[in-house]
Write a structure and sequence with these properties.
Layout (H helix, E strand, L loop, with lengths): L3 E8 L4 H17 L3 E9 L5 H22 L11 H9 L1 E4 L5 H9 L5 E5 L3 H11 L9 E5 L6 H12 L7 E4 L5 H12 L13 E9 L8 H26 L8 H13 L1 E3 L4 H4 E7 L1 E3 L2 E3 L17 E8 L8 E7 L6 E8 L17 E5 L4 E9 L7 E9 L7 H11 L8 H20 L4 E5 L14
Parallel strand pairs: 1-2, 1-4, 2-3, 4-5, 5-6, 7-13, 9-18
Antiparallel strand pairs: 7-14, 8-12, 9-12, 10-11, 12-13, 14-15, 15-16, 16-17
Helix pairs in contact: 1-2, 1-11, 2-3, 6-12, 8-9, 8-12, 9-12
């Protein structure tokens, strides 16, 4: 008998999220969990035939399988799916449905052979309308929901969404998806921090000068104006992803990595976050890109991108300087930054330690701050130290110790789906943290809407505005 029997019901199954991320992620998961019995059911407004749907799933699985073959040294693929994946394709089904209609939802649930995990690959407003209908339907006993960000549009709406969801499902069966919390990345951070006595005691205000969490992209708008022009870099990346990463970096050691313990420690960090110095105008910066070149690609100014409304004043680069006002971190600036159309891709957590309190007379050379740099996707770590260099033993050189973390066997969305299908909410965002994330950024959003924070500019392909403190990796 299969160790797990479940149905993955994807609402919005013919959309880009499903084709590009969810279905390939499911393929990587099924390759690892070969004893799981997973039925795949898709639904959406598009009128797809059974053959069209199976072709769509087959193609997504085939792309995932080809990518895995490329990563496996010496592995080759002939384009055919493994028997395991082909069986899931053959057993899958699709219905054209209005996912905000109670009768259509009941029909879809009737197609599920096992207790369903319902994945909302839909715009947030449609997801909420669908949940309003599900609240009045008798659901199977172990129904789980998976919702993509953003969770609400502000703290009040996020709280309202929580109330709606909790009216018919307990919190542990609600998965607010943040693929940045992919299992291998989070567990690598936890292992580095709490399984190493030489590192954990140093991560505090006594030894750390600053922490920078940076996610810079070289891509521009890439046709996402419909969503991005209303969200901007702060809501798209910092409000959700980077605050969650910061919480893992800064939290106290949980008693276990169970959902309650881990998510409680993250929530305690978020509750302690304040604008640096209490000055929202000085602690938040925003900018948007002008015309320029990224590598061999020429990009227009953001305001000239198709679908953009220049009057919205949407930022494509956001930076917040925050303080975690607790015993461990008080006085240490945490800078969170993310933007588009920048000259170099950066996905990193950079911890800069304070200067050595005393360097003995007679040692020469540039004594630089020690730094711990952790890169995300691929997960790597580098510890920069001062050591006596080759040649003159009295001269101090800067060197780096580098290692690669275990990448895990699943893609980010494979990790997401593993938690959803198993009913393990450890790496999903808890309801109170979804609200708290909005509370952290709302003072900055209000200041930006009021125009009290200038909208700076930077050329596409540059490192950001010249006036900013653009920390090097």
């Amino acid at each position: 008998m299969a160790s797990l029997q479940t149905t993955l019901l994807i609402l919005g199954a013919s959309g880009d999220l499903s084709k590009r991320l969810l279905l390939p992620g499911l393929a990587t998961l099924l390759d690892v969990k070969d004893d799981w019995d997973v039925q795949l059911v898709g639904a959406g407004v598009e009128d797809l035939s059974d053959a069209d749907w199976k072709h769509l799933v087959h193609e997504a699985f085939e792309n995932a399988q080809a990518s895995k073959n490329e990563e496996d040294e010496g592995a080759t693929g002939d384009g055919r799916l493994s028997p395991r994946l082909q069986a899931v394709v053959d057993g899958s089904s699709y219905r054209t449905a209005d996912v905000t209609d109670a009768d259509d939802l009941r029909t879809l649930l009737g197609d599920c052979r096992h207790d369903p995990a319902i994945y909302f690959a839909l715009p947030p407003a449609v997801t909420e309308k669908s949940c309003e209908q599900l609240a009045h339907i008798d659901l199977p006993a172990r129904t789980r929901l998976a919702l993509e960000k953003p969770f609400g549009t502000d703290a009040e709406s996020a709280g309202h969404l929580n109330d709606l969801l909790h009216s018919f499902l307990p919190e542990e069966r609600i998965h607010r998806v943040d693929h940045f919390l992919g299992r291998s990345t989070v567990l690598n951070l936890l292992g580095l921090r709490f399984a190493n006595r030489i590192i954990e005691p140093l991560l505090s205000s006594q030894h750390v000068a600053r922490v920078d969490i940076v996610y810079d992209e070289t891509l521009g708008l890439e046709g996402r104006a419909r969503y991005y022009d209303k969200a901007g870099a702060l809501v798209d990346m910092i409000q959700s992803h980077l605050l969650q990463v910061m919480a893992v970096v800064a939290m106290e050691a949980p008693a276990s990595i169970d959902a309650d313990d881990l998510r409680t420690q993250k929530e305690l960090v978020l509750r302690a976050v304040r604008p640096w110095g209490g000055d929202v105008a000085a602690a938040g910066k925003r900018a948007r890109y002008t015309a320029g070149s990224v590598g061999d690609r020429s990009l227009p100014s953001y305001v000239d991108e198709e679908g953009v409304d220049p009057a919205l004043g949407t930022e494509t680069l956001a930076q917040l300087k925050l303080e975690i006002a607790n015993w461990r971190w008080a006085g240490v600036p945490f800078t969170l930054r993310s933007g588009k159309a920048l000259g170099k891709q950066r996905r990193e957590i950079l911890i800069t330690f304070k200067d050595s309190p005393h360097v003995p007379n007679g040692l020469t050379g540039a004594v630089l701050p020690d730094r711990l740099c952790i890169w995300i996707a691929p997960d790597e770590m580098q510890l920069e130290l001062n050591v006596n260099g080759p040649g003159d033993p009295y001269t101090v050189d800067h060197t780096a110790l580098t290692t690669t973390f275990n990448p895990g066997r699943l893609s980010a969305y494979g990790e997401v789906l593993a938690g959803v299908l198993e009913g393990d909410a450890t790496l999903s965002v808890r309801g109170d943290s979804a609200v708290q994330g909005w509370k952290v950024v709302e003072p900055f959003l209000a200041a930006w809407r009021a125009g009290t924070t200038p909208l700076d500019e930077y050329a596409a392909g540059s490192g950001g505005p010249d006036s900013w403190d653009n920390v090097d990796s």
